[in-house]
DNA sequence: GGGTTCTCCGTAAACGTTTACGGCTACGCC
DNA sequence: GGCGTAGCCGTAAACGTTTACGGAGAACCC
């Protein structure tokens, strides 16, 4: 772990100035002899440039940060996985922030951007407050938000289309003859919870189905919460299908339906959301609305790269198309 | 995105020198008046210290890197998830490298450590070559390896105990009356593949069971490969249990067994390895050997922090205890 | 031979911090 | 009053790069 050589060390050994060393290493025009001398010296010393010093001079860190609630959540895993190669190919490192959906923690990440440890931040806030919007406006580096922000917010934005997604799911259930389609949602003060509540209501309207509050239940976005919410819902009414706001909720619903002796999909069809890796593993395999997590991650990374290349471009909004992946929980017995 | 204020800006506004500003901001003894003036100026300007400049001076980045094959793999997700809070609490950021199990890529990450963009590297190589060992020895910053390295390698090391883990699984199967216990492994030139092959053989010996090569099959560590390997195995012999080298392989095995009309666990019991989030979701729920991914991640982060605090301590080896999580694929019908 | 132009290179400043060093002031003491 | 000491603070150097600037020398042309 010895102190590594610097361009000064190389300069001495090669008998040239540090400016020449820098020029050679950066491929600027230099005489053959100098190039050779520097190359040899650098090789012999095992020189590796110090990225911190370079960053200080260039005010570029070649790092991009991604902040999300919980890296254990398959949706975020899919995003990270998709971002990684895009950033890596462009020579950027990826910094991960898990915020536990803590608003102060998220705001802290935004504020810390001022420390310039990263060139930009991709953030996927689960709740979106006034303070977030202020922080976006004041951010000291480009921000890309995954999840809808109000028009006019000065950030690039990647959106899922919950509306179309839920519409696809409900159309599918309707086509299968289901008419009492329940909805197990996450908290309404979250970005996805709010979006999906609206989307569900709109879809019912468009299908000409009645709005029955008894068919709606809310829990958190985890399996146990989904199970509890489903239990509450079943205690008061009897749906012939359950739309769930994410796959974990859907797994909880499957648990409860099975425990109650209800067959899936014969008695109750179940649809999840996000189409995570869990969906094809569940039993029955889970029909799920793919909101394009990977795609959203990829696009967010691309928006960030574009922004870093041209800081003055207009903020862009990208919407990712949803897709319905039909599996055993609504159709057949796979 | 205006240029942020620096200590020079503050110094001018407060009418003091930059040294005084620095002293105040770092809590070094200073007169009341100066402290107040600087605090006020910093507050008014919305000053945020530049971490790059600080790093250059202190040669500390407060960043730790983690390199693994694929962030999509649940084992690594568990590790990252466990590392994150440990590092965060100590004031370190986490940098993620996905190497796609590409050896050159891994070595590149090790070499790049010389750029000093991170204070240390946690790496979980899936294969371990001579060149890795050389690179560990030459690394310009502390390295913690997850996965066994030969004794004497100058790095801190966190190990899983495949041997005990497989022993637990085979004891369990043996106690259930299974005697023809097949093994679907991953590639033998990988660290886990090799370790588990040895562990399986040892466990058979200790149980006094015959070594039947027909019961062993090798594929890659993914669901489809596990399915293919299981198909090959079933084509030539008939086991009453299948030990699988990870959960994805086990899922593939379940797929094939179901397709062949074999009941799990009545006809063939199945055990996975790693106890990922997929295990409790599968059908039947999957008995799995938990090798403590989260625990390994946490311990690796702790070793790194210790090492950064005291660079001269002896390299340490930590072994994480395995645990068998019994579920429906070996017992009962949950 | 003197001017012009070009190529190559070295000097030095700059990026934003931290910190060693020494100067200044005020105070206490003999 | 002179001296020593303590407290506070400013100057400047340093971290390892990149890069503007200008000087030295060669080559070329008239």
Automatic annotation (TrEMBL), chains A, B:
InterPro entries assigned to the protein according to its UniProt record, in alphabetical order: HTH_LacI, LacI/GalR-like_sensor, Lambda_DNA-bd_dom_sf, Peripla_BP_I
Superkingdom as given in the UniProt entry: Bacteria
Keywords noted in UniProt: DNA-binding, Transcription, Transcription regulation
Stretches that traverse the bilayer: none
Entry-linked SUPFAM superfamilies: lambda repressor-like DNA-binding domains, Periplasmic binding protein-like I
HTH lacI-type domain residues: 5-58
GO terms, molecular function: DNA-binding transcription factor activity; transcription cis-regulatory region binding
Name of the molecule in the record: LacI family transcriptional regulator
Source organism of the structure: Actinoallomurus iriomotensis
């Amino acid at each position: 772990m010895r102190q590594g050589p610097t361009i000064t060390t190389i300069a001495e050994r090669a008998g040239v100035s540090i400016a020449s060393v820098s020029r050679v290493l950066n491929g600027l025009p230099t005489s053959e002899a100098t190039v050779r001398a520097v190359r040899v010296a650098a090789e012999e010393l095992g020189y590796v440039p110090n990225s911190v010093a370079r960053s200080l001079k260039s005010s570029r860190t070649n790092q991009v940060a991604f902040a999300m609630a919980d890296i254990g959540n398959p949706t975020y895993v899919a995003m990270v996985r998709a971002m990684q190669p895009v950033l890596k190919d462009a020579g950027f490192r990826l910094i991960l922030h898990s915020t536990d959906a803590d608003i102060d923690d998220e705001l802290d990440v935004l504020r810390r951007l001022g420390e310039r440890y990263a060139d930009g931040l991709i953030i996927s806030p689960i709740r979106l407050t006034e303070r977030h919007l202020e922080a976006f406006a004041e951010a000291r580096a480009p921000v890309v938000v995954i999840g809808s922000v109000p028009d006019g917010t000065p950030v690039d934005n990647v959106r899922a289309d919950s509306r179309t997604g839920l519409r696809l799911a409900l159309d599918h259930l309707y086509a299968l003859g289901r008419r009492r389609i329940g909805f197990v949602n996450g908290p309404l003060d979250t970005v996805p919870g709010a979006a999906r509540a609206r989307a569900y209501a709109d879809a019912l309207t468009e299908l000409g189905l009645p709005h029955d509050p008894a068919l709606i239940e809310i829990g958190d976005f985890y399996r146990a919460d989904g199970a509890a919410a489903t239990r509450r819902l079943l205690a008061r009414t009897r749906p012939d299908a359950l739309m769930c706001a994410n796959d974990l909720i859907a797994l909880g619903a499957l648990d409860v339906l099975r425990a109650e002796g209800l067959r899936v999909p014969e008695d109750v069809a179940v649809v999840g959301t996000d189409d995570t890796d869990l969906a094809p593993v569940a039993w029955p395999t889970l029909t799920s609305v793919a909101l394009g997590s990977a795609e959203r991650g990829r696009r967010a990374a691309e928006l960030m790269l574009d922004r870093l290349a041209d800081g003055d471009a207009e903020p862009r909004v990208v919407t990712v198309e949803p897709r319905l992946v039909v599996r055993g929980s609504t159709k057949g017995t796979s």
